[in-house]
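Standup notes
- HV: blocked on the assembly model, inputs below
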Amino acid sequence: MNSKDKPRRKRRNRWVFVGLVPFAIMVLAFQLAPVLSMISGSFRPDVGSGFTLHNYYTALHSPFYLKAIKNSLLISAYSSLIGIVVGLVCAYSVTRFSPAIRDRLLMLSNMTSNFAGVPLAFAYIILLGANGVFTLLFRQWGWSAFADFNLYSWSGLILVYVYFQIPLSMLLLYPAYYGIREQWKEAASLLGASSWQFWRTVGLPILAPSAFGTLGILFANAMGAYATAYALVGGNYNLLVIRIGSLVAGDVTNQPNLGSALAVLLAVSTLLAVFLNHWMTKRAAKYLTSGEGVG
Amino acid sequence: MSAYLDLRHISKTYAQTRVLDDVNLQAAEGELVTLLGPSGCGKSTLLRCIAGLTDLDGGSITLRQKDLTQLPPRAREVGMVFQSYALFPNLTAGENVEYGLRMNGQSKRERAKRAEALLALVDLEAKRDAYPHQLSGGQQQRIALARSLAVEPKLLLLDEPLSALDAQIRKNLRTEIREIQKRLNMTTLFVTHDQEEALTMSDRVCIMNRGKIVQQGDPETIYTKPETEFVARFMGSYNVLTRQEALRLFERVDGTADSFALRPESVKLLEADDDRIDGNSGRKVAEGTVHAVSILGTIVRYAIDVSGVRLTVDRLNDGRLIGMNVGRSVRLSVDPAQLLSLDKEGA
Amino acid sequence: MTEKPRAGWGHVSLQVLLLVYLLLPLAATGLYAFAKNWQNTLLPKQWTLEWFNAMFTDMRFFIALWNSFYLCAISVALSLVVMLPAVFVLTVYFPKWESFMKGIVVLPYAVPGVVAAVGLIRTYSSGPIEIAGTAYLLIGAYFVAVLPYMYQGLRNSMLTVSAPELMQAAELLGAKPIKAFLTVVFPNILPGVMISTLLSFSVLFGEFVLTNMLVGAHIPTIQVYLYQRSGESGHLSSAIGITYFVFILLLSMVLLKLGRRLNRGTRP
């Protein structure tokens, strides 16, 4: 009799699969197929046919592409490190305000994160570009410290990247501070710990997974940031995203398979970074839920 | 011949764990049967299987001679109240109660009349137009009860309906549910992990452990005659003794069981100069040392070491034994007739 | 019991500094859009509306606006039609597939737009379905781009209202699954659906990478238009940028309102 009910029940629930079909088709067509095509393309020569590792060889040996990879990694690393430090400090500071003010502050900071990509690059050009308002003002006031600053260079890119990293960093970090309960601080101070000792021995270790996880997200975010860089420096600065874009969709040099190889390398770096986040989030969750798991 | 509700050989496995292991259970019409057990014993799964919310791996469910096993939930004529109420937040209390009738295609007039009667039954007529989030937890659960009763189910399933509520509300609501159940003569399966709840509400209690019903009976039997070590431990502060421990206390025990239960009330503490005790009642007198004393309101509970066995002993808190401090030597008497043999199974 | 948070002067000045830093580019864009001439002074000397005037008389602006609007609207509508049943079925009937689904859905988040564009161009510039450079391809790409937002938003709202339990309760009361969905699940997740929709819309409205690489100048959206004109007049692009920003701002305010309503409505 038991073999009789099982098929019957299955049939009754079969209709629900219909709801998944369009989803599966869309994901297959526009997500999985492109990824597979890109990976297979990265192993094919741009001229001729067959299997080759030449694209990866070029990507990792040509000084030109190597420089692009290095630039991207460095800019991402620096901007996310600065982003995380500023984020940690500002997120903590935000938790010290009353909920009403706190929410306003966070809302304002989130609002500015809409201001990214082309408009952001553009705003910085107005402020600090060759004829930017501040550039001219500083020159007029004779502030020589800023005379060498060039927005369209390494330091300019870092400046703009940090701008869009900070709100994201704050948004991701500030909930972690609420994981640190006021009672823990009270308990620590009753046990004789100073505020600094509490943060060093309890607070920061608990924050650490969240901070590293956020670092992963910021890094991936910077590695993949295209619009800002494209609008700010165009083809003039050697970045991985810019190279990929011009290899695949460029008018002059069209080498889609080399572009694919570079894209695979970029994807590997961001996937690793996001994986770091995933792994750290799990650890953070372990800390913060252990109290409720008992019973 | 068949019972009103008849569950036979129910089994269910989740990822290699036998959640329900050949469960058999019958209920008579109008009976309130409680499934009692620790969390994870399978009691809620059993309820969900009866409702059709979880598939069975094997076995059959018969309600009033009708085989439910293959029916979808909506055709089973079974009502269910969830621990989390599961009221529809977009509908008012009245609309929630009417929902099942609306699905059956009853007219607006009939629905309103029936809903009014049910709201009256749970004493919430005034809250007809309130939304669930405007009601207290206890009120929400009463609406949920009214909602499941509105369609006149042939069987009512209550899945820990009180465990999300405060202690006082829980006590009131449990009396109320029992009264309504009796008035409507509604056959009910009630799932709980609270012994007191089970003992006060039920016609019959089924104790479950690891997917099996380990003992069933009326509340008094369940409380006074635990058959297994698991039931003895789960039902309260029974002293569970190994055979060696029992022999140390009594020198001689009946039966071949490996473990025994001794109710804490059945051990008598003797006054210091109380010498007359009954040579002929069969009670044993023993010497012991008080290890701990705790006052539980009307009862004082002692932990007393007697020949290497730690016994829990309860006395009425009548103020006479105030001087019984930790470390004091005491004499106590135990009755071999009160010693219950336990089945190791289910420990 | 919780102590009143104490924000000392240090914290206040830190937040003020942060806000100045974050708002400065915005303010600059805003001022520039209204400035007749702005050089060598802290604030512009003369104000004008001529840049907005120029923007509103430029046909290309309206074409770009329309392109953005219809592409986003179609993509979001498609996403909703596809995702609503899928997320519902997954949350209610196959909760075990959750982690697998999360993997699929997080992928667009982890894979940068450039990479996605490379794959899409390769797949669709030749072969049986040749739709490179068309709106179809862009809509497909947009669908994937908003996948994480749609999935999370819909799933969260279904879990907030405990859709699986509501479905069970409704089915026990005699409702068929589709009817149960329409009467008790959908009305309750409606605010969540609207939030996901608007959020996805605003994400796509600001999209540049995919648009630029997949269709570029063929179908200029508002972002591409802004990029094209930024080489010409700084003041004009500021006017476009600030208009775009105000629009997104209004959208997020609506989102915020809806979010509050969603939370209030489902409190037990």
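- HV (later): unblocked. The radius of gyration of chain C is 23 Å. The beta strands of chain C are 35-37, 46-47.
- Next: hand off to the docking folks.
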